[in-house]
């Protein structure tokens, strides 16, 4: 009787009473989604959802993004000093790109 009792004392536990392992990837994604909620939008009648990836960006990803940012800053003639809406927009896009990797 004792073994039957110990295997049912907690739902979701194993026969020896231990809890199943926590899925670390799902937990990390839940935390990231609570900090940076997924973006949702409709385009051409289709719902799109963009969420932050738990996979870190590589050094090469960051270098390529920096190069693209520099090119776009020059193309759009963003000011190097002071408040610049163009620079703000491009940096915002850059951050969203990095967080989505």
Summarize the structure in words.
The chain has 101 residues and is mainly alpha-helical. Helices cover 50% and strands 10% of the residues. It is built from four helices and two strands. It has helices at residues 2-8, 24-35, 59-75, 85-99; strands at 39-43, 46-50. The chain has a two-stranded antiparallel ribbon with strand order 1-2. Helix 3 (59-75) runs antiparallel to helix 4. It is elongated and about 65 Å long. Mean pLDDT is 78; it is low at 1-11.
Mean pLDDT: 78
Q: Order the strands across the largest sheet as they lie in space.
A: 1-2
pLDDT < 50 stretches: 1-11
Distance between the termini: 53 Å
Question: Rounded to an integer, what's the Rg over CA atoms?
Answer: 23 Å
> Rough shape?
elongated
Number of strands: 2
* Order of helix and strand elements from N to C terminus: HHEEHH
| Structural class determined from secondary elements | mainly alpha
Count of DSSP helices? 4
Helix content: 40-55%
For the biggest sheet, the summary is: 2 strands, antiparallel
Fraction in beta strands: 5-15%
In short:
This protein is mostly helical and 101 residues long. The protein has helices at 2-8, 24-35, 59-75, 85-99; strands at residues 39-43, 46-50.
């Amino acid at each position: 009787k004792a073994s039957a009792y110990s295997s049912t004392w907690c739902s979701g536990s194993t026969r020896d009473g231990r809890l199943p392992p926590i899925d670390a990837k799902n937990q990390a994604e839940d935390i990231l989604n609570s900090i940076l909620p997924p973006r949702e939008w409709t385009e051409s009648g289709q719902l799109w959802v963009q969420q932050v990836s738990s996979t870190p960006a590589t050094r090469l990803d960051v270098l390529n993004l920096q190069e693209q940012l520099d090119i776009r800053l020059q193309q759009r003639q963003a000011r190097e000093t002071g408040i610049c809406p163009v620079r703000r927009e491009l940096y915002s896009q850059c951050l969203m790109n990095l967080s989505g990797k």
